[in-house]
Amino acid sequence: MRSLLGFIIATVACSGCSPAAMEADSSDRWVGTWATAIQPPFTPEVEKALKYDVEMGHTLPSAGLENQTMRMVVHTSVGGTRLRIRLSNRYGTAPLAVGAASVALRQGGAMGAAVTPGSLTGVRFAGATAATVAPGQEITSDPVGLPIGADQDLVVSVFAPQATGPATWHRLSVSTSYLGRGDLTGAVDGAGYQPVVTPDLSCWFWLAGIEVSGSPARSSVVMLGDSITDGRRSTQDANHRFPDYLARRLGNRLGVLNMGIAGGRVVNDAPCCGASALARLQHDVLDQPNVSDVVLLEGVNDASYPKMPTMTADDVVKNPLVPVTAAQVNDGYRQIIAAAHGKGIKIIGCTILPYGGAASYTPEGEAMRQEMNAFIRSAPFDAVVDLDALMRDPAQPEAMLADYASMDKLHPNDRGYELMASAFDPRLFP
Predict the structure, then answer these.
(1) Three state DSSP letters for the chain
(2) 73 closest CA partner among 10, 152, 130
(3) 123: left (phi over 0), alpha (psi -120 to 50) or beta
(4) Distance separating alpha carbons of residues 260 and 239, to the nearest angstrom
(5) Are 399 and 393 spatial neighbours (Cβ–Cβ below 8 Å)?
(6) Mean pLDDT per segment of 10 residues, for the chain of length 430 residues?
(7) What pLDDT score does 310 carry?
(8) What pLDDT sits at residue 22?
(9) pLDDT recorded at residue 49
(10) 258 DSSP β-pair partners
(11) Any idea what the Cα angle at residue 50 is, between residues 161 and 412, rounded to 5°?
C-alpha cells in the first residue's frame, strides 16, 4: 500500500465551526447512521434508453409499485439503542400510501431476504402502522426500540398497497434489495421475496435515511459526491464503498452518510441522475441532524460530460447536458464552503481523481480537472485531502494507478476505495 504521508495538504482552523445543533443527552440526540441521496425517477424514455426492460424482470421507477413490499438492506456506520427511518416522496406525483413497514437485523453472514429471528419490529408513524406521504414531502417514523450496532446490516421493508406512481429512489445501491407480492413486512424467513433487478443490479425506493439515539456518536460526517462516493464498481453486497471504509477508518465513532449520486455534478443538474450538488446541498447536507463535517469529492462529471465522446442516455432522449467551465465549478465550491461554514459545519475538500483511459476522458476535460484541482488545493476548505496525488500513476499522471482502478478506469476498485479512506487522518474528525 502506498505511503499516506503528505496527502493531507492543508488544515485550517474554522472559526465558529462546531457540530451544529447538538443535543447534550445521547438518549435524545439523533444522529444519522445511514442515508442516501434521493433521486427523481426515470421517465419511460430514459428507461428505454438505459435498457430498463420490464420483460426482463427489471423494476421500473417510472411505474413504481402496487401491492408489493420492497425489502432493502442498508449498512450502519454507528449504533444506538433506538432508531427511526425517513421515507421520501420528494419526487412523487401522487400520495405514497405506506401500508406497513418493519425493521430488522440481517442474519449474520447471510445473503437473501431473511432476517434475524426475534429482531423484526414493526414501524409506526404518529402511532399508526400505516401512513400517507404527500407528493414532495418526507415523513419520519416514531422511534423504534431496536438496538443496532455499528458496521451492521439493517433490513427495512416497506409495503405499498396502492399504485404509487413514479417512485422517489436511489438508483445505485450496490446492495441487493428484494421485492415480493403483498404485505411481506413480517416475513422473517424472507419467503416470497425475489431480488430486485435493474441494469445497475439494485436500488432503494423511498428510503432516505436512518437515525439513531442512545449512540456514543455525537455527530455525523456527510460525504457529498458523485459515483465514486456512491460506490460504483465496488463489490456488490460487500460494503466496500469509499464511505464504508471511511466509517471503519474512524472507528465507527461518527455517523458517515453517503450522499453520492452516480453521474452527479457540482453546478448543473444531470437529467438522468439528479440534482446538482448546489441544488441538493440544503436537503442532503445542511438539513441532516447533528452534522459536524462534510467531505466533498465532486467535479469529474462537470469536466467530462460536456465533451463525452460516446453517446449517453441524455443524447438518446435529446436532453443534452449544459457545458460548464472550471471557473463556474470553482465558484460552486466557494458556495458550498460558505453554506457549510454558515451552519457551523467543517468542510474537507478532496482533489478530483485522475481518469485517463476512461470513455469520458479528453485532453480538454483533463485541463479542466487540473484547473479545478489547483483551486481545491488553495480554497478555504478546513482541510484538503489530495486524492489526485494519492491515486495517480507517476508514469502517467492523468491516469489512476492500475492496482487501484476498476476496468472502466474512471472508478476505483475495492482496494482503491480503501486506499482513499486511509488517506484521511482520523484527527480531522475530533
Answers:
(1) CCCCCCCEEEECCCCCCCCCCCCCCCCCCCEEEEECCCECCCCHHHHHHCCCCHHHCCCCCCCCCCCEEEEEEEECCCCECEEEEEEECCCCCCCEEECEEEEEEECCCCCCCCECCCCCEECCECCECCEEECCCCEEECCCECCCECCCCEEEEEEEECCCCCCCCEECCCCCCCEEEECCCCCCCCCCCEEECCCCCCCCEECEEEEEEECCCCCCEEEEEECHHHHCCCCCCCCCCCHHHHHHHHCCCCCEEEEEECCCCCCCCCECCCECCHHHHHHHHHHCCCCEEEEEEECCHHHHHHHHCCCCCHHHHCCCCCCCCCHHHHHHHHHHHHHHHHHCCCEEEEECCCCCCCCCCCCHHHHHHHHHHHHHHHHCCCCEEECHHHHHEECCEEEEECHHHECCCCCCECHHHHHHHHHCCCHHHCC
(2) 152
(3) beta
(4) 14
(5) yes
(6) 67 54 66 97 88 87 96 98 98 97 86 93 98 98 98 97 97 97 97 93 96 97 98 97 98 97 92 90 97 98 67 49 88 98 98 96 95 98 98 98 98 98 95
(7) 40
(8) 46
(9) 84
(10) 223
(11) 105
3 and 331 in contact (C-beta within 8 Å)?
Answer: no
Pairing of strands 291-297, 346-350: parallel
Q: Which three cell numbers stand for residue 212?
A: 439513531
Q: If you count them, how many residues does the chain have?
A: 430
Burial class (CB in 10 A: 0-12, 13-18, 19+), 230: buried
Q: Are 208 and 35 in contact (CB under 8 A)?
A: yes
- The C-alpha atoms of residue 43 and residue 41 are separated, in whole angstroms, by 6
CA distance 66 to 58: 15
191-195 — which CB contacts under 8 Å span 24+ positions? 193/69, 193/71, 193/112, 193/113
Are 381 and 348 in contact by the 8 Å Cβ rule? The answer is yes
Q: Dig out the grid coordinates for 49 from the structure.
A: 434508453
Q: Which candidate, 98, 80, 226, places its Cα nearest to that of 145?
A: 80
Euclidean distance between CA atoms 291 and 285, whole angstroms: 8
Contact (CB, 8 A) for 17 and 341 = yes
